[in-house]
Amino acid sequence: MRLRDLPSVDRLLADPRLASEPRPLALAAARTVLDRARAAIRSGEDPGDPVEAVLSELADVRRPRLRRVLNATGVLVHTNLGRAPLPAAALDRVVEVGAAYSTLELDLVTGARGSRQDHVAEVLCRLTGAEAALVVNNNAAAMLLVLAALAEGREVLVSRGELIEIGDGFRIPDVLARSGARLVEVGATNRTRAGDYERAVTRDTALLLRVHQSNFRVVGFTERPPLGELADLAARHELPLVDDLGSGALVDLGDEPTPASSLAAGADLVCFSGDKLLGGPQAGIVVGRAALIERCRRHPLQRALRADKLTLAALEGTLSVYLDPARARDEIPVLRMLSEPLAEVRMRAERLAARVGGDVEETVARVGGGALPLADVPSYACAVEEALAARLRECDPPVIALVRDGRTLLDVRALDDAEIDEVAAAVGAARCR
Questions:
Q1: Does the domain at residues 88-328 carry the CATH identifier 3.40.640.10?
Q2: Rounded to 5 degrees, what are φ and ψ at 65?
Q3: pLDDT (tens digit, 9 = 90+) per residue, 424-433?
Q4: CATH number of the domain at 70-79+335-431, please?
Q5: For residues 190-218, average pLDDT
Q6: Model pTM greater than 0.85?
Q7: Which residues pair with 285 in a beta bridge?
Q8: What stretches of 201-341 show up as alpha helix (H) in DSSP?
Q9: Residue 110's CB: how many other CB atoms inside 10 A?
């Protein structure tokens, strides 16, 4: 085909196959296709049928970009894959609230305007032992709000060993700077004692901040003061102690502190995420003393950082499961994955391997999401050809796996029984390409 053989935009759009397409959308697609066809011809390639190319372009425009994927990476709280899958109770609440009007900011008793915080505050207090609670759109926002409300223009004491960076370059010192608070580093990277905080307290100190080392551990010659010791020091100086836990586990998972234990040890405010080990939607949760929560609630930033109705609905549904502890490990997907017996995981891997002709291999899954960084979660994977990894990402739904030692490993700990069938079908399709 020569350049002169390409149709004009108007002639292309006059084709009956495009008659039912919205004009502005089809026009943009036609221009894109013709530009692409000219480049192909100049490169000596056949551009193909331009009308079919426009139809393909329109289909691509309409295809959702945020898509469901099958997580065969062995990382349970995978940040790139949306972190924690929601429990059924959360999804039910999202559908109910999202499909209709709601009592988001209406007090049914008085008929007057209410607070969106009231919908989850009571259950959060019940689950953590806090006096009050507040929810914003993520834990970074929770930290920003707390520091702005309690320490703007004043000093915040934090250990050098806790000046962490998490995903996408997010750093605690940067949050402190944006809040208007001034960072005062105490102690050393590997050893910080209560006396280091004591010596740093001045008239300008606003609060003590402890940050959980959620995505790493310092090992060897290390020391950190117990939270209770910091709480005693803060109380003597009449300063709030804020504990940033990050991951937000509401049940005992060993090396991961809970908000309830932190408050019981003397923290005045505790901040944590909703979409990591808690297993709910993206949210930043602050629990603790009522007077401090109220200061955060009244700060101008609170409106900019507040959670929307769908987040609150999903969080309320998730938290309702925790009211019955026996249900949590069965109905919260992340907890179920963590606690599933290894024998059952192996059975899924064997079933997948039998379907696709792969090999069963022992693996180690990870919690991910900046939680339990030293925890090895025994798992099993089905090993197939290395070349399939990229092709599996092109399937519908895409399968996200990992490549190691020249093979693609399909770790099954984060896959349920129904998804095994989908992964098997995807492997078959990928091999046919």
A1: yes
A2: -85, -35
A3: 999 999 999 8
A4: 3.90.1150.180
A5: 87
A6: yes
A7: 135, 272
A8: 227-236, 259-264, 290-298, 301-305, 309-322, 325-331, 333-339
A9: 8
